[in-house]
Amino acid sequence: PLGALSGPAGHRPVVENEPMSVAYDVEAWTELMVAVVGAMAALAGLFFVALSINVDEIVRMRRLPGRAASTVVMLGVLLLAGMVVLVPGQPLWLLGAEIALMGVTVTIFSATALRPRNDADPQLNAFMYRVQPLLVMLIPCATLIVAGISLAVEAGGGLYWLAATFVTGTFACM
């Protein structure tokens, strides 16, 4: 039985007479990517409004500018990741390379913006305000890199890792 992997008219996608897993069938993910791109664009817009309204408070608190910057970048990367999947005709290795490169870039940026500082308020819980935000943001960074590599080599889960990135990235930005 073809079940959930069935394409139009009950046929599975085939590449060189071999069934292709839905994890690497970009066409099967088009509707989700369109929804993700719209949602990320809306969230990024709302976040910019919130930043502009509270910019003085954000700048005044030492730990918030880095968190705000990493959130803006993560929302942008999630938006871009959804957009590159929607580009038609890309070979999977190129799509995977683009996504992995985004993952490496956002990882470096987040690690820099959220690095634990020694000059933080000593009354704040060191783990809660200095380490946890970095760890939470690194989860979607890691899944984005895994998604890219998985797509490039067409093994290991493919676009399911990108779906996990959208979920964990959205929660990391909250």
Structure at a glance:
With 174 residues, the protein is an all-alpha fold. The chain has six helices and two strands; from the N terminus they run E-E-H-H-H-H-H-H.
List keywords for this structure.
174 residues, mainly alpha, 6 helices, 67% helix, disordered N terminus
Structure characterization notes:
The chain is mainly α. The chain is 67% helix and 2% strand. The chain is built from six helices and two strands, in the order ββαααααα. The chain has a two-stranded antiparallel sheet with strand order 1-2. Strand 1 (14-15) and strand 2 form a beta hairpin. Helix 1 (30-53) runs antiparallel to helix 3 (64-86) and helix 3 (64-86) runs antiparallel to helix 4. The longest helix is centred in the last third of the chain and has 28 residues, at 126-153. It is elongated and about 50 Å long. The protein starts with 13 loop residues before the first strand and ends with a helix. Mean pLDDT is 84; it is low at 1-7.
Helices and strands in order:
Blueprint: E1 14-15, E2 18-19, H1 30-53, H2 55-60, H3 64-86, H4 92-113, H5 126-153, H6 159-172
Antiparallel strand pairs: 1-2
Helix pairs in contact: 1-3, 3-4, 3-6, 4-5, 5-6
Biggest sheet character: 2 strands, antiparallel
Question: Could you say which overall geometry the principal axes of the C-alpha atoms support?
Answer: elongated
Number of strands: 2
Radius of gyration, rounded?
Answer: 19 Å
Separate helix tally? 6
Content of β-strand: under 5%
Let me know the average pLDDT: 84
Strand order of the largest sheet: 1-2
Task: Estimate the helix proportion, in percent.
Answer: 55-70%
Task: Report how far the terminal alpha carbons are from each other.
Answer: 41 Å
Q: Label the structural class.
A: mainly alpha
Order of helices and strands: EEHHHHHH
Unreliable runs: 1-7
